[in-house]
Write a structure and sequence with these properties.
The complex is a heterodimer of chains A (about 180) and B (about 80). Chain A is an alpha/beta fold and about 180 residues long. Helices cover about 40% and strands about 15% of the residues of chain A. Chain A has a 5-stranded parallel sheet, sandwiched between helices. The relative contact order of chain B is 0.26. Classes of the chains: A alpha/beta (about 180), B alpha+beta (about 80).
């Protein structure tokens, strides 16, 4: 007789392989500290074998925009807005103590000396771990952000129903 | 003293880096092998068992070294059989 023994731990691992837990995170904020928290949770969850989807909307889109890309909008109001609302993962301001860039720069220096990854490194790690990025089309239209001004690896451009369809299956849904 | 097959140095890294590095490193091991994760982040005491619980790998043990001022944690993770 041939008996194959399955340890409980193995069974759990197999179960997760077939039906992983889902995590969805809405990133609305474009503040460095909040975006960092979002990516730390996302990468942590992905490392635990969960399937993670991040939805970037409004200011959160700045985290996945290429640095220094202007708004594609034609009207002057949105172009002015585009001048003020600069994108780029490396140039997100702190929610407190930004001090016109000085505070944020000092925080980054402290992070570097403590070997803490910044937003650009966290994005890279997240993509490495297979975290899905979805950009909100409504905000993109509103702000004149085009697909080619977003970083590589943004998996989808979608709206609220895509988010809800994913979130419905998620065991962890966060709004940051 | 637990014997490890592979050692991973995460000294100086904060959460979530030690866990992310562990999740990448464990892929290089064959089932049954033990990975030793060296860290100075106290959070690993709770985080590594939690990670093991969700991923199915086995937490074999945790060792602490050094004084209160500079403590080093060694987490031993046995790769699950698949």
């Amino acid at each position: 007789m041939n008996i194959t023994q399955v340890e409980p731990a193995v069974a759990l691992a197999e179960l997760q392989e077939t039906k992983p837990d889902r995590v969805t995170i809405v990133v609305l904020s474009g503040n460095m500290d909040r975006v960092m928290a979002a990516f730390i949770i996302a990468t942590g969850a992905a490392a635990m074998g969960m399937r993670v989807t991040m939805f970037f909307t409004f200011w959160g889109l700045n985290a996945i925009r290429r640095k220094g890309t202007p708004s594609a909008a034609k009207d002057w109001l949105r172009r002015m807005f585009g001048l003020l609302n600069r994108g780029g993962a490396a140039s997100l301001p702190l929610s407190r103590f930004h001090f016109w860039g000085l505070g944020t720069r000092m925080m980054k220096r402290v992070m570097r000396t403590h070997r803490m990854p910044g937003v650009p490194e966290l994005i890279e790690t997240a993509q490495d771990l297979g975290v899905q990025f979805i950009a909100c089309t409504t905000t993109m239209g509103l702000m004149g952000i085009t697909k080619d001004t977003l970083i590589d690896g943004v998996d989808q451009l979608a709206g609220v129903t895509t988010y809800l369809a994913e979130a419905k299956q998620g065991s962890v849904n966060l709004f940051i | 003293m637990i014997q490890a097959d592979v050692k991973l140095d995460t000294l100086g890294y904060f959460c979530p880096m030690p866990i992310i590095m562990t999740s990448k490193k464990i892929k290089e091991l064959v089932p049954g092998q033990v990975l030793e994760v060296v860290s100075d982040d106290e959070g690993i005491k709770k985080d590594m068992p939690a990670w093991c619980q969700t991923t199915g790998h086995e937490m074999v043990g945790l060792e602490e070294e050094g004084s209160d001022a500079k403590r080093i944690y060694k987490a031993f993770v046995k790769k699950a059989k698949r």
